[in-house]
Structure formats: structure tokens, C-alpha cells
Amino acid sequence: PQVANQIAAGEVVERPSAVVKELMENCLDAGATRILVEIVNGGAKKILIRDNGCGIPQNELALALKRHATSKLSSIQDLNRLTSMGFRGEALASIAAVSRLTLTSKPASQNMAYAVEVEGIAQEPKISPASHPDGTTIEALDLFFNTPARRRFLKSEKTEFLQVEEVFKRIAISRPDVAFVLKNNGKVVYDLKAVGFQNEIRRLEALLGKGIASELNFFEWSDTSLSIRGYVSVRAKSKPVQYFFVNGRIVRDKVVIHAVREAYESVFAEKGDVSYVCFLQMPPEDVDINVHPQKSEVRFQESRRVHDFIQTSVMNVFRNAQM
Ligand code: ADP
Ligand code: MG
């Protein structure tokens, strides 16, 4: 079972950025309004994530590290109206299987904080009193220390960090109401204040740069069941930035990419790629986002309709900008 755990773990967490994604999503699920991410040596040496969310009660600490233990799903029907980011109960168990992990947590209702430490889950985790403000810290050291093949598969520190940074950006873009800090080898890379959704352009400036942010045009559009809001640039940039979220999750999807391209071509009568940051909301049962935990793939039930909806809404922005 130990080996099986490690193999499965390698699929959920194949690199530091995947660990960061899972742990940051847990913080958001816990209702955190502040999230700190600390990386050392591209994440291979250390990944630390701290939040001020709901915490994990002492008697649930060991359980949180067990495979298929999730506090977020109580029935299979829940899968279809999933509002939390996590639901598989796999991430913590997987990360614990391939690192030296310490989980320290304090729910506001509990007087003391407690910590649980595991090393590749060889033994029963041991729980001890600790010092921690309301919220949770997870520290994963020496990622893949016990799976040398995986460890060798890691790229350079720089490449791994860039991937972590990208994951961090995506999440920070989607939640301007939450404060985020990213540190790399002790240096602050981003220190993002919570600005709220009304001022999300400030968040985009901080993450994408003022240049790109100044080219973005806000738009909103909805029909009976679909609604989209976000930003598109009108002129084709030499290097466009493109972020598309469906029900809060980042996706890379050809239906989406194609719809924006078509919109551009039909208004400007030439090919071009623009920057965009868009948030599409739709009934959860009309889209399957959990095709694979890492690949950010989606499958729309009615992809033609979604395509045309995106195309029309983006075309309107282009047309307005042309006038
Ligand atoms: P999932 O997110 O799919 O439920 P995880 O393995 O990511 O599974 O986490 C297991 C459980 O641990 C969660 O269901 C949650 O109860 C708890 N948990 C993990 N991280 C946090 C956190 N930062 N704050 C509060 N609870 C957490
Ligand atoms: Mg999770």
C-alpha cells in the first residue's frame, strides 16, 4: 500500500507547482482571506503555505492526511453542485506520501494549535501541541525524497519556480478579495493586498503589469444560463496573456481559444491574438471540469452554445472599441 500510495501521489502531485495549487485551493476552500506561499529551491527543498482560514480541529488532523478523506462531499450528488475547489480528498495524502510534511492548525474555536508530522506516512502520524494563530500552515520539505525517480524528473530551480509563480498568479487573479504573498528563497515576489472585486483591475495591474492592464477593456454579458465577465485587449499584443476561468477554475480549452479568435477575425478581418482575463459562470451540471486533476481541461455539455456565447460577447467589446 505504501508503494501504491507513492505512485498515485506522483500523479496528483507531479511537481512543486501542483503541490502549491492543491494547497492554495485548500486555503480558499477554508475561507481564508490571507494566504502566504513560501518557496525554497524551486519548491524541492521547501513549500510552505499559511492561511487564516477555518482551521482543522485537533481530532481531524490525522484524518485530513488520509487518502479519500474529504470534509467537502457528503454524497455523490454533491459532485454535480460542487462549489469547493477540492473534493477528492487526495491532495494532502499524496503530498504527505512524498515529502516530510508538517500540518499545523488552529480553528478559532480551539484554544490551542496542534501539529501533525509525517515522513512519507511510514508511521502513524504523531500529534503535538504547537503555537499558531487561527488558520493552517502546511510545510512540505524535501519533495520526492523517497521517490528518487520523481525527484530526478524535477527541472531546474528556475523552471520549477516559474511554474509555481504561474499557479500562484492564476489563483490570485481569480480572487482579488483575498490577500496573497509569494516569497522565493526568502525574497518577496508578490505582496498583494485584498482589493475586492470592484477594484480587481488593481490586482491585474499588480500581477500582469500596468502596461497590459491598461489595454484591458471590461465587459459583462449574460443569457439565460451563461454569464461572462472580464477583460479583453483590443489590439493584438506581441505576447498576449490569456486567462480563462470557468466557475472559478482556470481552463485551457480549444472551444474558448477558438471563440475569441473567431470574434477577432470577424470584427477585424484578420487573424490576431489578444490578451484576456475572463470569468465564465455556468450551471455546474453543464460542464465537466474534473477530467484530470492537473490538466485544467473542461468538457462543455453544449460546446457550440458556449462557443457562440463567448464569441458574441467578445465581438461586442471589439466593435465598441472600434467605434
Ligand atoms: P479535498 O480538498 O479534496 O477535500 P485534501 O486532501 O486537499 O482533500 O484535504 C483534505 C481535508 O483536509 C479537506 O477536506 C479539509 O477538511 C482539510 N484541509 C486541508 N487543508 C486545509 C486548510 N488549509 N484549512 C482547513 N482545512 C483544510
Ligand atoms: Mg484539496
What topology does this entry show?
Elements: H1 2-12, H2 16-29, E1 34-40, E2 46-51, H3 61-64, H4 91-97, E3 100-106, E4 113-119, E5 126-130, E6 135-141, H5 148-153, H6 157-174, E7 179-184, E8 187-192, H7 200-208, H8 210-215, E9 216-222, E10 227-233, E11 242-246, E12 249-250, H9 254-268, E13 276-281, E14 287-288, E15 299-300, H10 303-322
Parallel strand pairs: 1-7, 11-13
Antiparallel strand pairs: 1-2, 2-6, 3-4, 3-6, 4-5, 7-8, 9-10, 10-13, 11-12, 14-15
Helix pairs in contact: 1-4, 2-6, 9-10
The structure holds adenosine-5'-diphosphate and magnesium ion.
What characteristics describe this protein?
alpha+beta, binds magnesium ion, 323 residues, DNA mismatch repair protein MutL, binds adenosine-5'-diphosphate, single chain, 15 strands, 2 domains, Heat Shock Protein 90, Ribosomal Protein S5, domain 2
Q: What's the CATH architecture of the largest domain?
A: 2-Layer Sandwich
Q: Residue ranges: pLDDT <50 for 5 or more in a row?
A: none
- Tally of alpha and pi helices: 10
Question: Would you report the number of β strands?
Answer: 15
Question: Strand order, biggest sheet?
Answer: 5-4-3-6-2-1-7-8
In N-to-C order, the SSE pattern is HHEEHHEEEEHHEEHHEEEEHEEEH
Mean pLDDT: 90
**Biggest β-sheet: count, sense, barrel?**
8 strands, mixed
Number of discrete domains: 2
What's the CATH class of the largest domain, please? Alpha Beta
The structural class is: alpha+beta
The CATH topology of the largest domain: Heat Shock Protein 90
At the fourth level of CATH, the homologous superfamily of the largest domain is Histidine kinase-like ATPase, C-terminal domain
Work out the helicity level.
25-40%
Give the termini separation: 64 Å
Bound heterogens, unique = adenosine-5'-diphosphate, magnesium ion
Strand content: 25-35%
Rg, rounded, reads 21 Å
Give the overall shape: elongated
